Prior knowledge:
This protein is an alpha+beta fold. It has helices spanning 50-56, 68-76, 95-101, 184-191, 197-206, 212-226, 232-238; strands at residues 16-18, 21-25, 31-32, 64-67, 87-91, 106-111, 115-118, 131-135, 144-152, 155-157, 165-167, 172-174, 180-182. Strands 4, 5, 6, 7, 8, 9, 10 and 11 form an 8-stranded mixed sheet that branches. A 3-stranded antiparallel sheet has the order 1-2-3, with no helix packed on it. A two-stranded antiparallel sheet has the order 12-13. α2 runs parallel beside α5, α4 packs parallel to α6 and α6 runs antiparallel to α7.
Amino acid sequence: MLTRPRLHPRQQSKPRVLKKRVERSDRSGSVCYPKIMTCEHLKPWQPLSPDVVLRLFARAEFPWWIAGGHAIERFVGRPLREHGDTDVLLLRRDRAAARALLQDWDCWAADPPGRLRPWLLGQHLPISVSDVWCRADPSDSWRFQLMLDDSDGGTWRSRRCEGVTKPIRQLGWRDASGMPCLGPEVQLFYKAKAPRPKDETDLAAALPLLSQQQRGWLADAISTAYGRDNPWLARLGTGQG
């Protein structure tokens, strides 16, 4: 599911000096940098609209797609709900090129199980990191999130299950404005693992518009990754939104 990563408490540890600043934990165990910044994951979100993201990525020489609820709305052609963030899907192999494109942005990697840390320009991002939060500068609100997914040549492989694949050229589509959007069947696959109310809203809106090919791929992907008892499989079988 393409959502902001949950940040879990870290175990308490002794303070240590990091370039003249002290790292410690707040009451929840999350890392803070006193006198430098507050706990970064607690800072607010004021997400960019997809249209602004399109202008920001206009010079990108790598594929990218608007994802999350915004991708579903572009598919159905109407607003469905409020959005707490804006997701941008990239192939993991393009992460260095994306960081160079965002060289003026303040980017933070979500290290599993979810500790945010700065991702500096030119710094290698390990394969374990799949989520990056981005903002204009340290005083700004969070604006969008990069979601990194795997690939093998011309094939996309879900980071959630390597058996779920799709040709990269079929991973998304462009709307009338030229916006690259993640295919609805792929976005719904991520939402199907543990659907929340907003995910049910997205499914109800998109399901009647899916082609038989999209519906079949989604059913196969859900069954492969999550098992045949996933509740969305019955709805895909009946076609009810």
